[in-house]
Please model this.
Amino acid sequence: MAELGPLTCAGCGLLCDDVFVERSENGVRLQPDCHLGTEWFSARVLRPRDAPAAMIDGQPVDVEEALTRVAELLRAARRPLLHGFDWATVEDARAAVALADRLGALVATDRVGGAWPGAPAVPLRGDSSATLGEVRDRSALIVIWREDPETTHPRLLERLGAGVGSHRRRAAQRTLVVVDDRDTATSKLADLRLALSPERDLEALSSLHALQRGMTLRMADAEGELRELLHRINDAPHAAFVYGPGLTAGAGGERRALTLHELVRELCRSRHVVSVALPAAAGTRGAQEVLSWQTGYAPNIDLASGHPELLSVTTPLDTAEGVDVSLCIEAAPQAPRDGVTGIALSSLPVEGVAVSIRTASAGVEATGTAHRLDGVPLTLQAPLPGEAPTAAALLTRLLAEVGA
Ligand code: SF4
Model:
């Protein structure tokens, strides 16, 4: 039995930095316990060390040969796309943007397949946000909008002082509202629950806004619930909305996000109201902030014209933009469409791509910087350093090769 820690866990965007990991022949155990963190560490700590360092068309090759092939593919690409970033560090994202700039590539931190959510709400209009500490210390009311953090961010309620068990004293001092028609682990903890279907999110948010301004309500059948929610918000000096892909993913997602931020702005006229976004993965927030610093735009940009342009297409990116080479960085690549050559730089095994190179896992095998979901930067440690290169090191090599 070996204990490692305290470590920062990158199993989700919370990046808990108080985690101890016990390894034994039976697997991995986390202290404090977290099912998602246990899965995250198990996948990396127990990964076979003799896995191939790189593959081309399913055959093991050495890293140099794979890098040469990737450079050839990128040089010949007409419309390259760099995407993923689920487990990427800030250093990985920074190297990716430099390479994309040289290639004139698309860079996407959102999912590239499926219905596209539209022009991004936060970069266009801004938001009122807060750190986890501010919400924990000040919010008397927390509204969770169509998310189940007990499953996706298991220690979120504990960190916000709205959890159960040892956090009951703080939890008793605040109200937890869940807007969701699913029975989830989080909805079971709610003091007030609005079981609205996802198709009604836009209507519900704009109705709350209208009610707050003393205007006519559009959702007459849900008037009682919406009035009750608004009454509780107006009774609290500080309130927080927690939202994520449940609201923003899919067609019209960013319009719904925009409506939430417009509601928060309206509520802020008489009290302090903030929103906290749950990112899809631990690396997403850091990658988006790198894009913002380096190009002025996030979450998805196009560098083909020689200067950064915010991507605001309304159709799925992988079909709308005629992508022919797709480089997935530290994420599980989706199966490439016909005619698209897939490349993966990943610390976990990948299949179905033309070239893959194994990277060191930040937080286990390599150090790096990650941004917590509220933007706070934290260091990922390397308790079990490995010999594999980081994605940042590979991308820097590719930049030199592509530019040569
Ligand atoms: S809540 Fe997230 S960051 Fe914290 S231990 Fe669990 S998986 Fe890791």
In short: Residues 54-111+282-403 form a domain with the Rossmann fold fold (CATH 3.40.50.740). The pocket of iron/sulfur cluster is lined by residues 9, 11-12, 14-16, 19, 34, 36-37, 40, 153-155 (CB under 6 Å). The first helix runs from residue 35 to 45. The chain has three domains: 2-45, 54-111+282-403, 121-277.
